[in-house]
Design brief:
The structure is a homodimer of 374-residue chains.
Chain A: E1 7-9, E2 12-14, H1 19-26, E3 29-30, H2 33-43, H3 48-51, E4 55-59, H4 61-69, E5 75-80, H5 88-104, E6 108-112, H6 114-120, H7 125-141, E7 149-153, H8 158-169, H9 174-181, H10 189-199, H11 204-209, E8 215-220, H12 224-231, E9 243-247, E10 251-252, E11 255-259, H13 275-285, H14 294-300, H15 308-317, H16 321-333, H17 338-362, H18 367-370
Parallel strand pairs in A: 5-6, 5-8, 6-7, 8-9
Antiparallel strand pairs in A: 1-2, 3-4, 4-9, 10-11
Chain lengths: 374, 374
């Protein structure tokens, strides 16, 4: 998916992203008032990421809700590419997924794509395995429902996934991948096959249950190409097309120019960072929407739209819309300084991480229980 | 691998094959007197397929024997693509492999490439699974050593094979496959990945034992491209290059124009054929090197080189070189008629199949024991 202004593939996000253009280019639907109302009807509330347009687009969510209303429950499927430590940017999709699981009381299948990261990154198999375990701790720490949450690790659950993946792969040509992912002849043959492994979990519960079960995939928009290609395949194998709900990217520390990435130094706050590290990172690296001097800031006001500290509150850490609005207003007017805004954000992140890190340690004993046993 | 005269890829064999040219094109070595002597030293005899040049080429067999003589035992790896019934053409490689296992007292890893056949053939997943089971019965019936013989089915042993395959796949580009297999952009992405699944078993014992174990792969020459590509990869992963020993193709019923195939009607004698069916097939379809009339045959003699009945005796059913020579001489001189030659071949095939079919039925209870349990 290339344009003159930006590029969004599952492995590259560059430039400032125009989400309106993305909706048109990718052929997804906007999450409009009508569908938000339908979600609210069942959930009794709307998650902050829905209220604030962070989840902004979808495929076939109307159909999924129709089925749900007929008593045909869906399951959730999302995942993690384990190539490094987990940062705050990862958490958005997963916290939203947890909300969906709680509100709709559904199963979750969570895929760790260790094969993908090994095949796409210049890292050893052993290093990827280490990150797979470390990342599982973070996911387990988020409190997904036990007994209703199943971790799949591609190389460890290949007996389950590979036979499904070959059925999907048989229906996808290399030409299609070239067009959708910009792959070339110089790409390795594992990369080329990989998309069918990512497509497989969307039908795993249907394969196991021997009946067709609707699937909802929450993901950041860069992962959409995998399912755009695979969605055409599922019906040919006798399965429903999965529904998808898409989020924007959480801005990187360096500002709203692309996706937050754990591979760029200092571009991310890690879930394992100490309170001091968080404070330093935010103070030193968090892109600010403030003015050069306090005087100027008081006079002209700051810009919360590009301010990374503010965006962290908006994406993750300020649940209360009224409070968020107040902060936004004060910052825009110049009443709140960047240092004051950063202080709030640091406190919120550290409060969250303190709890998360405790749960993450406890998760060492629980991870095994989440792994699917076939 | 294309030339003006013939084409040999793992999925297509066309035209009359020039094995001398194949040795040059594929860059394999001829099985010469010197190396045959080395084999004979250990085996105390030479298998008829070695004596008669049916196994005719190799890669790195000298090195493998060096290691063996140092006390570093190899293991055998061969396989079966389960897309239809087993015919006599399949048996050559396997019977030779059994001989190697018996003489060198080594482990055998036997791969059933159900993924390959599903991805390359216009057949359903279920049909391929059916043939996988049926083919396993034939292989088990050949009497490989229990406890030293391990069946791998790609989709059932993906937990073992896929993690190795991705390590191999990372080192192979699509460009390489295009050059070696003639693949195109319109090929499905499962086909493209597949060669790394076929390459995996050559290091499975080393991976499991966590030490480097030499591997010998007996195969028909059309399978060589898989290993020609993969052999460059193994050392990059810290493993030995496997040695390979190559056979010519068993001629099809219709004559020496290519490989015997179970997908061509009447081109093959199946292991499940009745004595009557064998008789009919040989009488009706086995390409004859005889003359048009008995008078002519008596006068000018027949041509055993192209006679399929004679070739069956040479490949599989006449162990005694002196007897074979006598038949050849009598047929070539015109003393033996085609009907007489066919009678001998029919008797030999039916004697073999009678025993094989008994063992094949018994194998229903034994197949499970051969499947690798990880």
């Amino acid at each position: 998916m290339k344009s003159s202004r930006f590029k969004v593939t599952p492995w590259e996000v560059e430039g400032e992203v125009d989400y309106g253009k993305l909706i048109r280019d990718f052929g997804v639907s906007k999450l409009d008032e009508k569908i938000l109302k339908r979600i609210e009807k069942h959930a009794k509330e709307l998650h902050l990421m829905l209220r604030r347009g962070i989840f902004f687009a979808h495929r076939d969510l109307d159909w999924l809700l129709d089925e749900y209303e007929k008593g045909n429950k869906f399951f959730l499927y999302t995942g993690c590419g384990p190539s490094g430590p987990i940062h705050l940017g990862h958490l958005g999709t997963w916290l939203f997924t947890k909300w969906l699981q709680d509100k709709f009381d559904v199963e979750l299948w969570f895929q760790f794509t260790d094969d993908e990261k090994f095949l796409f990154k210049d890292k050893s198999y052993e290093e990827i395995q280490k990150w797979t375990y470390e990342n599982m701790l973070d996911v387990a720490a988020l409190g997904f429902k036990k007994g209703k949450t199943h971790f799949l690790v591609d190389t460890k659950h290949a007996n389950l996934l590979y036979p499904i993946a070959v059925r999907i792969a048989k229906k996808i040509t290399f030409s299609t991948l070239k067009a959708s992912f910009g792959m070339t002849n110089e790409d390795n043959i594992g990369k080329i096959f990989y998309t069918s492994m990512q497509a497989a979990p969307a039908v795993v519960p249907s394969v196991l249950a021997k009946r067709n079960i609707p699937c909802l995939i929450p993901l950041a928009i860069d992962q959409d190409p995998h399912f755009r290609v695979a969605r055409d395949v599922y019906p040919k194998l006798g399965y429903y097309k999965p529904s998808v709900i898409h989020s924007v990217f959480m801005p990187a520390m360096s500002g709203p120019k692309g996706k937050m990435s754990s591979s760029e130094v200092n571009s991310a706050i890690l879930t394992t960072d100490s309170a001091k590290e968080v404070e330093n990172k935010i103070k030193k690296y968090a892109f600010s929407g403030g003015r050069d001097t306090i005087e100027e800031h008081r006079k002209l006001g700051g810009n919360p739209d590009v301010d990374v500290s503010f965006q962290y509150l908006r994406f993750l850490f300020e649940e209360d819309d009224k409070k968020l609005e107040r902060i936004e207003k004060d910052y825009r007017s110049g009443k709140m300084l960047t240092s004051e805004l950063k202080k709030i954000t640091i406190e919120r992140i550290n409060a969250f991480l303190k709890e998360h890190q405790k749960k993450r340690e406890k998760a060492r004993k629980e991870v095994e229980k989440f792994l699917w046993k076939g």
